[in-house]
Amino acid sequence: MELKCYLCDAVLKAEGKPFKIGTKEETICVSCYTKTVNRRKAVGQDKTG
Question: Which tens digit of pLDDT belongs to each residue from 25-48?
Fold first, then answer.
């Protein structure tokens, strides 16, 4: 069985990152992980500034 990214459905060949979505922990690709982390940081900066 191939693992797929929860967000973009890309097949995870090398490694996936565990990421908490709601109450579950899903596996996402490195690209989606980077995008999501950067978005969360940007939203956090907007709230403090």
Answer: 999 998 999 998 898 888 886 655
- Helix, strand, coil abundance in the chain, percent, nearest 5: 40, 25, 35
Integer CA distances (angstroms), 27 to 23, 41, 49, in order: 13, 20, 32
| Confidence (pTM) | 0.71
Helices in the chain by DSSP H: which ranges?
30-48
Q: Where are any strands of DSSP class E within the chain?
A: 17-21, 24-28
What's the rounded Cα separation, in Å, for the pair 12 and 46? Answer: 32
